[in-house]
Specification:
Order of helices and strands: HEEEHEEEHH
Number of domains: 3
CATH class of the largest domain: Mainly Beta
Strand content: 25-35%
Distance between the termini: 143 Å
CATH topology of the largest domain: Immunoglobulin-like
Structural class: alpha+beta
Largest sheet: 6 strands, mixed
Radius of gyration: 35 Å
């Protein structure tokens, strides 16, 4: 083999190795084009009313979109599962409305409050404004039950209930008996 060809191959191999190392060391952006954006919602689960921050800046966030709204690719579809198959997946809640959660022009950090929705895993589509406004990514938010908070001391009372009534009542009876007995003793004292 010619030394010039060998040097070119070695240089190409070195370039390939450096490019691979760089790709492994440099963290990926928050969202790939038209693909899922994992960890774009913070938090990613909670009850209705939860305030959620969206990681990539965007122009629009949509809760529970329909597959026919997503022209550039339907979440859930793959080589094994076409659009019709994806439509049957539980991420699409056809009995719940589509909700525009946040809208900003120009592109800015987005946040939204989780709408009042039944428990489940919901798709949130985030449009970033590129590609004439058609580029989007998505993540999931899981609606969880509202936690049952313990009653405050004021709501629960002090816990004394009938015991408190008995203590106060006994004190009143004892005090009245003491005053009556004292009055009798005072009236029996000799007068000079």
């Amino acid at each position: 083999m010619n030394t010039t060809v060998a040097a070119k191959l070695l240089g190409s191999l070195a370039t390939l190795i450096l490019a691979t190392i760089a790709a492994l060391l440099v963290p990926a952006g928050p969202a790939s084009a038209h693909g899922p954006c994992l960890n774009c919602l913070e938090p990613s689960a909670g009850p209705p009313g939860t305030l959620v921050q969206v990681a990539p800046e965007g122009v629009l966030a949509v809760w529970n979109p329909r597959p026919n709204m997503l022209a550039l690719g339907v979440p859930g579809s793959s080589k094994e599962c076409d659009i019709a198959c994806a439509r049957a997946k539980p991420m699409y809640h056809y009995d719940e409305p589509v909700v525009v959660l946040a809208e900003e022009r120009p592109r800015a950090p987005l946040s939204f409050t989780v709408p009042d929705a039944p428990l489940g895993r919901y798709l949130v589509v985030i449009y970033n404004g590129s590609e004439s406004g058609h580029h989007y990514t998505w993540d999931f938010f899981t609606v969880e039950p509202t936690p049952i908070l313990p009653k405050t001391v004021r709501e629960a009372g002090t816990g004394w209930g009938w015991v408190g009534v008995a203590v106060v009542g006994s004190g009143a009876i004892f005090g009245a008996g003491y005053l009556i007995g004292r009055r009798r003793r005072v009236s029996r004292l000799p007068v000079n």
